[in-house]
Write a structure and sequence with these properties.
The protein is of the alpha+beta class and about 500 residues long. It folds into 2 domains: about 210 residues, Alpha-Beta Complex (Dipeptide-binding Protein, domain 1); about 220 residues, Dipeptide-binding Protein, Domain 3 (Dipeptide-binding Protein, domain 3), CATH 3.10.105. The protein has 13 helices and 21 strands. The strands form 4 sheets. Strands 2, 9, 10, 11, 12, 13, 14, 15, 16, 17, 18 and 19 form a 12-stranded mixed beta sheet that branches. Helix 9 links the parallel strand 16 and strand 17.
Length: about 500
């Protein structure tokens, strides 16, 4: 196989021709933006205590905010492609275990210093844990070495082939020798200013940014945990924008600008495959027939949502298998038949608890609809809901795996199919449902080792999704609708196929 040269499309990010005086883009000038607007964004939960971009985050909201401050060698665009950032291009060797990056010239950190190969080597070495033996980022555990043969080239060597590895190079580049605990310094379009825990985090436009400058001068993320308070803040104009609102909240804000996208996650009734009663495939399959996912979407989300049939969401267009959505048509009689084979009847019902994080209303609402649907099986299933705080859910359910069933959403932190499917490999630390299948492991490993070289990666990932669906690993429901509400003078918000909030293009019109 000839060596693949993966030169990135510079036209997506090299926009110098669009700039007018003072760093203001032609787009902003044409649309009446002053370029010096302050934007206030409501967020429903505070960020993690650590804003270290290399430390795994339990909060998707933390990743959303840091997306504006930090950049990697590459970054995602709105179409799900990787585009240049600190690197201007890269190449991959024939065996997909060596990636060579050419750094862009003139990229500066927020402290004014220019990015060097030393900064890149330090950042990747730190994130991969090459000196400590403990990776800070699990996605970089496969990195065997990072070197710099010259002052513009960085070579990343892997311990095993990975055809999707480039997507992990969104890992933040920070100054050599620095510690984010001592100062938040990145290369993104915004620079960190301050933080008041449980109140706000403030960032300002970085005027020496290498690409197109941010359209507003300052962004304040305001923590508003109460949903009704968020609605009132939008109505009063106290905040300019809020994302991840529910359909019921949006109904109160119809006079404002409402955008609808998707959450880019897979909401499901996740089942503990490693413990009774869900160590039985028959029981898991019975629930797939018993639960009408469209009913959940209609009743819990007022009809807003995108049905899924396995662990991949629709925005991953090249991997999403639409045919699996209808694999289990609602069939209560079939569900009762399968349950009876395992000895579960009205006289001896299947009983289990659905543990849900109480601060995620869409998951609580979906769980309630699921319980109501199961109640319609004539007493053969008795499910109850236990609401717990987010920290308890994360420690007991996700980390401790002490649960029977849960409703939650699994998202992808990187533009890789492996981010969604790798968590179901038998020995993966993220495999919180305890799914174990040799065929799945073999297929997934084949995809990682040579899927993009000798075989079709999409086909291998499709097979992984089929195995999860056929074995009823979980009861798959939907990718939740994601509503963004803005004041009518705010423009420029863009959706991504990842859980990020890009505010660089957001501004207020004059």
């Amino acid at each position: 196989m000839t060596k693949r040269i993966l030169t990135l499309a510079l036209t997506l990010v090299m926009t110098a021709a669009l700039f007018v005086g003072g760093g203001q883009s032609a787009w902003a000038a044409e649309n009446g933006s002053t370029g010096d607007a302050d934007i206030t964004v409501g967020i429903a939960a505070d960020l993690d205590s650590s804003l270290d971009p290399h430390v795994s985050s339990s909060s998707a909201g933390t990743r959303e905010v840091l997306f504006n401050i930090y950049e990697g060698l590459v970054k995602p665009d709105t179409e799900g492609n990787l585009v240049p950032a600190v690197a201007e291009d890269y190449t991959v060797n024939d065996t997909a275990d060596e990636y060579t990056f050419t750094l862009r010239e003139g990229v500066r950190f927020h402290d004014g210093s220019e990015v060097t190969v030393g900064d890149v080597v330090y950042s990747l070495t730190r994130a991969a844990g090459l000196e400590t033996g403990e990776p800070l980022m699990a996605t970089l555990a496969n990195v065997a070495g990072v070197s710099a043969p010259d002052d513009r080239t960085v070579v990343v060597t892997l311990s095993a082939p990975d055809v999707e590895f480039a997507a992990y190079m969104t890992a933040a580049i920070i100054p050599e020798g620095s510690d984010p605990a001592d100062g938040i310094v990145g290369t993104g379009p915004f620079k960190y200013v301050s933080r008041s825990p449980q109140e706000n985090i403030v960032m300002e436009r970085f005027d020496d940014y290498w690409g197109e400058k941010a359209q507003c001068a300052k962004v304040t993320f305001k923590v508003i945990e109460d949903g009704q308070t968020m609605v009132m803040s939008l109505r009063s104009g106290a905040i300019d924008l809020a994302a991840h609102l529910e359909a019921s909240q949006v109904a109160e804000l119809s006079d404002l600008t409402v955008l609808e996208g998707s959450m880019n996650l897979v909401q499901a009734l996740y089942l503990n495959n490693a413990a009774a009663p869900f160590d039985s495939q028959l029981v898991r399959t019975a629930l797939c027939y018993a639960i009408d996912k469209q009913a959940v979407i209609d009743l819990a989300g007022d009809g807003h949502g995108f049905p899924v049939g396995s662990s991949m969401y629709p925005a991953f267009g090249k991997y999403f298998d639409e045919q699996l959505v209808d694999l289990y048509q609602p069939d209560p009689d079939k569900a009762l038949e399968l349950l009876a084979q395992e000895g579960y009847t009205k006289a001896h019902p299947l009983e289990f608890t659905i543990t849900v994080p109480s601060n995620y209303t869409p998951h609580v609402d979906a769980a309630q609809v699921i319980v109501n649907l199961l109640d319609q099986l004539g007493g053969a299933v008795k499910a109850r809901i236990e609401q717990v705080e987010w920290a308890t859910w994360y420690s007991d359910v996700y980390q401790g795996r002490n649960f029977e069933a849960t409703v939650c959403g699994m998202d992808a932190s990187t533009l890789t199919g492996s981010a969604m499917l790798g968590r179901f490999v038998s020995d993966n630390p993220k495999n919180f449902i305890g799914f174990s299948d040799k065929g799945y492991d073999m297929t997934y490993n084949a995809a990682m080792e040579h899927g993009g070289l000798d075989e079709n990666l999409e086909d291998l990932f499709a097979t992984c999704q089929e195995i999860l669906a056929q074995q009823a690993a979980n009861v798959y429901i939907q990718d939740l609708a994601d509503f963004v509400v803005m004041q009518n003078d705010v423009t420029g918000y863009r959706f991504y196929p990842l859980y990020v909030m890009d505010l660089a293009g957001v501004t207020k019109t004059a």
